[in-house]
Amino acid sequence: MDNPIYILGIESSCDDTSASVLKNNEILSNVTANQEVHSKYGGVVPELASRAHQQNIVPVVQQALVQANIKKEELSAIAFTKGPGLMGSLLVGTSFAKSLAMGLEIPLLDVNHMQAHILAHFIKNDTSKIPPFPFICLTISGGHTQIVKVSNYFDFEILGETIDDAVGEAFDKSAKILGLPYPGGPLIDKYAQKGNPKAYKFSKPKVGDLDFSFSGLKTGILYFIQREQKNNPNFIKENLFDICASIQHTISEILMDKLKNTVKQTQIKHIAIAGGVSANSEIRKRLQLTEKHFGWTTYIPKFEYTTDNAAMIAITGYYKYINKHYSNVSVTAKARLKVTE
């Protein structure tokens, strides 16, 4: 391949508008516009999200091209998030990508957002190692918690997943119970650094070996806080760091227990994490310790590739492009999409 392949990736599945330009498997630019509008509502408002995407998408794509120092005419293909996500948000990215690909007469590549989180590990950079196939990926985000066996770039098998809520939701809802602003997950991580992780004990859910459940844990935390506040109205304020550390410790334990079960069952010791919650410092630390304790090889993405971003869409598009997995212009966005689809 003498001529470089330039892929423009577009991500608009939730509340971040992102565009990235890739030269082969190297990132030239990765630009993201965050939407501040949702914080006062305590969660993402779909209607406001899609409107903000419409305002942001042209300047974000333009900036990605400028930073990459290439003209749109040099692009080889355009990759975009087909799903899963908020329908209104997905439609903005989908229709923009289709129009641009048609205008430039270049291939269109639809990307599964959950596959992209996993394939972010294949972005070439100086600091991260690239996992060999097959490997196990723990995909953890606000909407997903699953253990996926990855046999090649487009061969995924779900070994275990949550039967109710996702882990990101467990962090955010716990933060809400504590009166912390949205999104609360990063704040729990921040305050946990100063607390005692063994201060309070929360019970772990009893589900299958590789499956997850977080709704009972959220309820347990709620009842615990209500009980303690009856005795001491200032309980949260006086013990915030310890509460956050204990919640984070319990969630990390649950995730690690499931990964140990997975390794036992599959004998695969190459373990990656992906998704927004993989930015959590305790989960990263616990995973790294398994290298010493169990002889696993672990793969932890760079911070900028953990949350929703277009670089992961572009790298997935790159592998689709070289395998000629092109999309038809009649492709439609899908709010619900499994990692295996």
Automatic annotation (TrEMBL):
InterPro entries (alphabetical): ATPase_NBD (IPR043129), Gcp-like_dom (IPR000905), KAE1/TsaD (IPR017861), TsaD (IPR022450)
Ranges for domain Gcp-like: 26-314
Chain positions recorded as substrate binding sites: 139-143, 172, 185, 189, 280
Family matches, as SUPFAM superfamilies: Actin-like ATPase domain
Subcellular location(s) of the protein: Cytoplasm
Catalytic activity from the UniProt record: L-threonylcarbamoyladenylate + adenosine(37) in tRNA = N(6)-L-threonylcarbamoyladenosine(37) in tRNA + AMP + H(+)
Named cofactor requirement(s): Fe(2+)
Pfam annotation, one family: TsaD
Binding positions for Fe cation per the UniProt entry: 113, 117, 308
Chief subcellular location: cytoplasm
GO molecular function, a single term: tRNA N(6)-L-threonylcarbamoyladenine synthase activity
Record keywords: Acyltransferase, Cytoplasm, Iron, Metal-binding, Transferase, tRNA processing
CDD domains in the cross-refs: ASKHA_NBD_TsaD_bac (cd24133)
Family of this protein: Belongs to the KAE1 / TsaD family.
Function field: Required for the formation of a threonylcarbamoyl group on adenosine at position 37 (t(6)A37) in tRNAs that read codons beginning with adenine. Is involved in the transfer of the threonylcarbamoyl moiety of threonylcarbamoyl-AMP (TC-AMP) to the N6 group of A37, together with TsaE and TsaB. TsaD likely plays a direct catalytic role in this reaction.
Full protein name: tRNA N6-adenosine threonylcarbamoyltransferase
Taxonomic path: Bacteria, Pseudomonadati, Bacteroidota, Flavobacteriia, Flavobacteriales
Gene name as annotated: tsaD
